Amino acid sequence: xLATNIKNKYDHASKMLQKKREQLISGFLNRxxxxxxxxxxxxxxxxxxxxxxxxxxxxxxxxxxxxxxxxATGGYGREEQCIHSDVDLLFLFEKNVPDKTEDLIQ
Length: 106
Hints:
The chain has helices at about 5-10, 10-30, 35-55, 75, 100-105, and strands at about 70-75, 90-95. Helix content is about 55%, strand content about 10%. Helix 2 packs antiparallel against helix 3 (about 35-55). It is mostly helical. It has one domain (about 5-105). The protein has a two-stranded antiparallel sheet with strand order 1-2.
């Protein structure tokens, strides 16, 4: 799949992520939310979950045929995700990596 097609396909999820993060930042600036980092990590959870479910690849990966797990690591995995930090994920497959997995990861 071309990079532009991938970008367009997930544009809605990206815009929702941006909107939720803007709301989180605004709330923090107004209330000094002590759980800001945890809430930011949960927003990312929602983003990845929605992206996986809406993708062509995610639902077809067949967890029964080729078990896999997706792990959040680093600050994200500890629910301490800073707003401008990178997001560390580990995709682990029991057998082989399906052909279109890179499209999903992108």
